[in-house]
Amino acid sequence: MASENIIIFGPTGQVAAAAATFAQAKGAKVALAMRDTKKAIPGLSPEKEQSAGFERVSADLTKPETIQAAVEKTGAKRAFLYLIFGKPMRPAVEALKSSGIEFVVFNSSLSLTEESDLRNVSQGDYVAWAHAQVEIALEEIFGVPNYVTVRPGAFASNVMLWKDMVKKGEVRIAYPEAVFSYIAPPDIGKLCGALLVAGPQVLETKGGRNVVNLTGPELATQEEAVRDIGRVLGKEIPVVALSEQQGVKLFVDGFGMPESAAQGLVSLHRRLAESGRNDKGYQGDIYEEALSNFEKYTGERPTTLFQWLEENKGQFTD
């Protein structure tokens, strides 16, 4: 396989770190673009980083001139991109294009679906709207097939929002019966890394589509996720159901989320509680494809929520 020259933005996060290590293992030359070049990379020791030939470079996605400099310095032709909430991302996409990037893999969100009209997503649906703006920019600036958007469902790491409550011995959430298909962040990264190495030709088997949906290997309610946390920690953790209003307040006051985003998220939880495992998002060919995409592109088996919790249980006691 020919060596590809790839730049990964945000490698201090689990997703981007996994994208970097997976792409490098497949023979790519990988640059790690980060605001603080002294920070540790998850799963990558200094010794491994040096022996594998990773290159660190300073860059900030909110400062287009640093993107231009990083790409020109590394000579990268392919890039991994993620969303920074609350910041306009179009200038970053423009900088990638003008600096010589030919192909982008964007870590988007399954809050956007096959039915989504990107230009008419409501700003009230904050997560979907924010990701849609980046997808629009990629479409207009790069065009198909020069980018791929990976749309994962719920990150397994979302359960870390409950960390302080887990420590106190009780998790208080709205709609504990809401069903999610939790995905391990490193699995998302591995898929992105595989697509970066494969390049635009990956779309040949997708009928020209530039979207790869991804879902976790199992469905679980929020309450079942709490139970799994308890299993890995060796203790029972009660779950207390909050009202919808209390749930919004928790996201706003407890987690610093904008109220509109909190309302949208709690509304989603209500829908996923009412529909459960029969939700339309967990049915049909599109879901089955999303379920199989990880193994299809990486050749590996996906990580279950329980496995990810076992690997990261120390985060609940830090």
From TrEMBL:
List, alphabetically, the Pfam families matched: NmrA
The chain positions of domain NmrA-like read 4-279
Q: Under which name does UniProt file this protein?
A: NmrA-like family protein
* Species this chain originates from: Truncatella angustata
Taxonomic classification: Eukaryota, Fungi, Dikarya, Ascomycota, Pezizomycotina
